[in-house]
Amino acid sequence: MEELRRNPDSHGNHTLENGILHYKGRLVLSSSSSWILKLLQEYHATPMGRHNFRTYRRIAQSLHWMGMKKTIYVLACLVCEQNKYQVCSPQGLLQPVPIPRAIWEEKSMDFIVRLPKSNGKDAILVVVDRLSKLWSLHSS
Q: What's the CA gap between 15 and 17, in Å, rounded?
């Protein structure tokens, strides 16, 4: 901080704003700050924070401390451990489906379930031809 007071350009990503240290525009905390645990609880487990893997990104929008990523990802939480959908690779961009060349060459299917019972059945299978959009219903 003393170097930044003497020469504001001495540390490229660090700045002093009203005597407070910032890193890339984010408030810098000491890695031993007692506020870190309180902030983690607020951002992660309260109704305003909610459990999710974006905790790091949400905190990193406004705060920074040395070892921040490691501190957040080590956070042991049963709810998060049971719902680790973040380990999946990200989905790609939508790709166009090729247009079929003949009727009923390619079909899409879907079930509609939990319908009012009719003749003891409460679901239907809908089959649609992708080219003509003709459809067929089958009860089950």
A: 6
- Give the model confidence (pLDDT) of 73-84 as tens digits: 655 566 666 665
User: Domain with 78 in it: what CATH number?
Assistant: 1.10.340
Token pair 């959009």: residue: 133
Quote the pLDDT of residue 85: 55
Query: How many residues are listed for the chain in this entry?
Result: 140
CA distance 138 to 94: 30
Tell me: do 119 and 60 sit in the same domain.
no
Cβ pair 140, 123 in contact under 8 A: yes
Which among 20-29, 56-65, 117-126 has the top mean pLDDT? 117-126
Do 124 and 137 meet the contact criterion of CB atoms below 8 Å apart?
A: yes
Q: Tell me the three state secondary structure of residue 108.
A: strand
Q: What is the pTM of this model?
A: 0.46
Residue 25 belongs to domain spanning = 2-86
CA distance 110 to 47: 36
